[in-house]
Amino acid sequence: MELLSLALYALIALRRDSGFAAEAALKYFVLGALASGLLLYGISMVYGATGSLEFAGVLASSFNEEANEWLLKLGLVFIVVAVAFKLGAVPFHMWMPDVYHGAPTSVTALVGTAPKIAAVVFAFRILVTGLGTVHHDWSLMFALLAAASLLVGNLAAIMQTNIKRMLAYSTVSHTGFILLAFMAGAVGFAAGLYYAITYALMAAAGFGVLMVLSDGDNECENISDLAGLNQHRVWLAF
């Protein structure tokens, strides 16, 4: 996860002459580092509560009620917040619109696809596999995050005039659906992963259309740039 993020920090700032790209890279780096710190702090609390970093050991300790319950739940909160940052769930989505807008379209296509699938798999491994015994606690947090993401993501998306910012808020909204799938445990994970992969492919296709319509340094970013597309680029409009 962190190796992938390190590569994205550099790619987002690829356009050295763009102030937007530098700002987007800095925001992504600062908030990404914060999320990583929260994740490590949460993992350290889980280790302190269970005495193990192995998924099987954590699961066995919590199942046999040998773990420090309050320390385990506090660590769980930090882990869920870090996962929410990585997925871009409300209210931890503040980096997404600026990063999507500031990065080159080709890089935005990468930011909006591969890291999301990786974050979904990571969330399953650490929450469902390792912390399945406290499913009730983190599923309640996921329910609140999902409801907020669906509401804010959809309302904010319809108010945007920039296509990339609109797609960023669309990603926030779709993150809400993915979080809802996690509430069903291991069974829902398959549906959530399928949903994430499908959305990643559709997002890549959408950004691909923007790249085709872009002309050199003049990127197709605003909804007004698509005016008359059905008349001269029928297949792309379709």
UniProtKB/TrEMBL annotation:
Cellular localisation: Endomembrane system; Membrane
Keyword entries, A-Z: Membrane, Oxidoreductase, Transmembrane, Transmembrane helix
Molecular function GO terms recorded: oxidoreductase activity
Any GO CC annotation of this UniProt entry: endomembrane system
Membrane topology: Multi-pass membrane protein
Top-level EC class as recorded in UniProt: oxidoreductase
Transmembrane intervals: 31-49, 70-89, 138-159, 166-187
The enzyme's E.C. designation: 1.6.5.11, 1.6.5.3
Residues of the NADH:quinone oxidoreductase/Mrp antiporter transmembrane domain: 1-232
Domain of life according to the entry: Bacteria
Keyword Transmembrane: yes
Pfam families hit by this protein: Proton_antipo_M
Cited PANTHER family: NADH DEHYDROGENASE
UniProt protein name: NADH dehydrogenase subunit N
Species in which this protein is naturally found: Neisseria gonorrhoeae
